[in-house]
Structures are given as C-alpha cells and as structure tokens.
Design a protein that fits this description.
The strands form 3 sheets. This protein has a 4-stranded mixed beta sheet with strand order 1-4-3-2, with helices on both faces. The chain has a two-stranded antiparallel ribbon with strand order 5-6. The C terminus is likely disordered. It has 209 residues and is α/β, with parallel strands linked by helices. Helix 5 crosses helix 7 and helix 6 runs antiparallel to helix 7.
C-alpha cells in the first residue's frame, strides 16, 4: 500500500556483544567499515552487503540521531524487532522528515493498533507519552511532525485518527520538572542534534580502511 525503496538495513544490539555481532556479520560476507567501527564501535557499527549493494547499520544500546532512544533494556520485548513504539519514534524523531519516512509511519499506523503495550499488533502509546513527557525537545519534534503529517501529507483517515489519538495522549501526559524547565527556554535554543554524516560507506568498504 505504501511502496518505497530501501537504501540500507538497520539492526539493533547490545554493546557488550559488539565483537560477536561483528564476527557473525562478517561470517555472512558483510564487509566492515573498519575506520568507522574503530571510532564508534561502542555505540554503532557499519557494514556493507556486496550482494544487496546496501549499507548495514547496527545501533548498540541506543538509537541516536536527532534525538536519543535508549533501547538496551527493550530489546527482549519483541523476538525479531525493536518494539513498535520505538520503531515509530525512530521515524517521528526526524527533523527533516522525508516522504519515505512518512510512508513508513503510514504503514505502521495502518497495520497496528494503539494501546498500552507493545506486541505484533499494538503500539504502546503509554510508553511514548511517558518518554516524551520527560524530554521537551523530543516531544517538540514528534508533535511538530504529527502536525506536519496531518496538515501537509493527507494521511488515510485511519492513520489520521490514530495520529490525533497519539497527539492527545502526548498532550495529556503530566510533564516532568525537567520538561517544564526546558519548555521555558523554548525554541530559542536548538532542541535536537544534527545526525552525523558518515559519507559513502561503499567506497570505504571497498578500500578496506
């Protein structure tokens, strides 16, 4: 229903298993970006799949782009994937959200219901609301993106209704003192990080550096 091209593959793991993860991926023919992995291997690994001509990212303990999502204690909730609530947040945390990101959000909200736990059919909005109620910056990016999707991307009615439900859940959740203090500063100070540009990995991989 929402077709798109995939340029890379993301995996998640635990930093204490970094070496084991690298050994497994290399045994499958994945080429490590040795320079990148040496610098960032405590939190992120990068490989290249020559058969799929695709970059493979492995995030360890945390997912850190425009905002940080701690996943270390959540990787056992689902068998084959991170929890749907975290998966949705990896999309809603993007400052410069793209059409492909929008399609992924539409797909998630079409296939899954909103609820108070994560499973194969449900997104835990209670978890999302509590997480964002302690982080004004993350809350701001997510709510900005929800409004943008509703106003500019004409989501299917089913998706639009779930986005409105999620927005209400976020607004109604009691906010922490940290959230309120940061809210007083507002948008005068940047509330997100610029994701690190890692360049063309294929060239790095080919050079074996």
């Amino acid at each position: 229903m929402f077709p798109r091209n995939y340029k890379d593959i993301d995996f998640f793991g635990i930093s204490s298993q970094s070496k084991k993860i690298s050994e497994i991926l290399e045994s499958f023919g994945m080429i490590p970006n040795k320079r990148f992995n040496a610098l960032h291997g405590d939190r992120r690994l990068m490989f290249y799949d020559p058969q799929l001509d695709s970059t493979i990212d492995v995030f360890l303990d945390i997912f850190e782009m425009c905002h940080k999502i701690t996943l270390k204690d959540r990787l056992t909730i689902m068998r084959y994937t991170i929890p749907p609530s975290d998966l949705l947040l990896t999309k809603l945390q993007i400052i410069k959200i793209t059409e492909n990101d929008i399609k992924d959000i539409f797909a998630l909200l079409t296939d899954l219901d909103l609820g108070d736990h994560d499973d194969e059919k449900t997104i835990d909005t209670k978890y999302i609301a509590k997480l964002l109620a302690d982080d004004w910056g993350f809350y701001t990016t997510v709510t900005d993106n929800i409004q943008k999707i509703l106003n500019e991307f004409n989501p299917p009615s089913k998706v639009a209704e779930k986005l409105r439900q999620l927005m209400k859940k976020l607004e109604d959740e009691p906010k922490s003192l940290k959230w309120k203090m940061r809210a007083k500063v507002g948008r005068k100070v940047k509330w997100y990080e610029e994701p690190e540009e890692v360049g063309q990995f294929k060239a790095d991989a080919g050079g074996g550096t």
